[in-house]
Structures are given as structure tokens and as C-alpha cells.
Amino acid sequence: MLVRHCMTSNVRTLRPEQNCLDALHEMRRLRVRRMPVLRDDRLVGIVTLSGLYHVLPRTPAQADSAEGIDAEERRVQQIMSTPVKTLQPNDHLEAAAQMMLTEKISGVPVVRDEHLVGIITESDIFRAVWRVLGEGGGVRVILEEQHHTQGAQPDYVALLLKHGCRLHSFLRFPGPDGGDLVHLRVVGPRASALVDDLAASTATLLSIDRTP
């Protein structure tokens, strides 16, 4: 899955010369936690809600003080984060997840030829994972393949062909005990027979459920 399949394309932006109070009102109105900053259609920074809360006064008394008035009039360009970590539309989704984990950020602008074309956030990745794991019907099987187990691991393609089932989703990832955990969702009238074959294999079935 690529970044362009999951990103939000209609991105609202800020200008460097806007003041911080206006930026806060705009972000609250749009219910967003971050906004890219553009100058002449070029991405020059990003502002987060937490960054604005850090510099703006939080009480009426603070807002009425000289320091508070000063803070509200500060320009976006003075508090924006720069340089900005970015992704390309054809980057893989795991690259976006890795960047967010490594950089401890929750959203990344997406650019093409230095022009902003979208933004991808943690929520976008969660929705993508849900589409893979949770959306669609059929039988969902979670099993564990142990590397030290004698005998071949299940031949999933052969089993699908044998029972005339359609593969909806397949994920393999490292388990906590040294083996691989496999998430398998299959659709077809003989899905139960396929599960019986899996139960007779060298893998350990952890969960079986039928989803509507």
C-alpha cells in the first residue's frame, strides 16, 4: 500500500506571516492538530497545536499582559518547525509509519516536486490497517508458525486452490516467542475445510472466527 492511497489530499495550510492566535483559531475550527506552512506554494514549515499552546497565553490574565499580547502577535514563521520531514506519494505506507515512530511525530506532509499534495497522519495509517485487518467478511484465522517445528509450514496457496477459497488478506509478522504470527482471512464456501487442514498442519491455531 502506498502513501497516496491513504493520505488526505485536501490539505488546509497556513502562511508564514499569519499570527499565532489566528493560526490557533483556524486549527480549532478545522479540528486538526497540525497544519503545513506554505510560502509561494512551497512547503517551508509545519505548525502543531501543541506548539501553539506552548507559546500562547493560557489564561485571560496572561492574555492581557504585555507578554501575552506579544505572544498572540508572534508570526507563524517564528514558531513553525523547519526543516520539515516529508514523504513522496509513491513511498510505501511502512515508510510513513517508520518515520513517525523514529521522529516521534504524528503527521507527515506529502510532496511532489516540492509542492504539497497531501498529508498522512497516524489516523490515516490506523484506517489503512483496519481496512486490511477488519474490513470484509469470511473466516479470519490467526496462527503461529514455529521456526523450530519439524516439518514444512502450511502451503497457503495450495490450500486456497484446493478448497476454492479467495484470499482477502494475509499478514505475517514476528511473534513474541520467536515464531511468526500469521493473520489470514479467506472467503469461500469451503473455508471451514481449509481451516481444518490448517489445524492438522505444524502451525498452532490461536484464533478462528467468522466475520459478517
Distance between the termini: 24 Å
Going by CATH, the homologous superfamily of the largest domain would be CBS-domain
Q: How many domains would you count in the coordinates?
A: 2
Please give the count of helices. 10
Characterize the structure shown.
With 212 residues, this protein is an alpha+beta fold. The protein has 2 domains: 3-128, CBS-domain; 135-211, ACT domain (Alpha-Beta Plaits, 2-Layer Sandwich), CATH 3.30.70.260. Helices cover 37% and strands 28% of the residues. The protein has 10 helices and 8 strands. It has helices at 3-6, 20-30, 49-55, 60-64, 66-72, 76-79, 93-103, 122-133, 156-163, 191-199, and strands at 34-39, 42-48, 107-112, 115-121, 138-145, 166-174, 180-187, 204-211. The strands form 3 sheets. The protein has a 4-stranded antiparallel sheet with strand order 6-7-5-8, covered by helices on one side. A two-stranded antiparallel ribbon has the order 1-2. A two-stranded antiparallel sheet has the order 3-4. A hairpin with a 2-residue loop joins strand 1 (34-39) and strand 2 (42-48). The longest helix has 12 residues, at 122-133. It is elongated. The mean pLDDT is 86.
Task: Please name the defining characteristics of this protein.
212 residues; alpha+beta; CBS-domain; Alpha-Beta Plaits
List the helices and strands and how they pair.
Elements (H helix, E strand, L loop, with lengths): L2 H4 L13 H11 L3 E6 L2 E7 H7 L4 H5 L1 H7 L3 H4 L13 H11 L3 E6 L2 E7 H12 L4 E8 L10 H8 L2 E9 L5 E8 L3 H9 L4 E8 L1
Antiparallel strand pairs: 1-2, 3-4, 5-7, 5-8, 6-7
Helix pairs in contact: 9-10
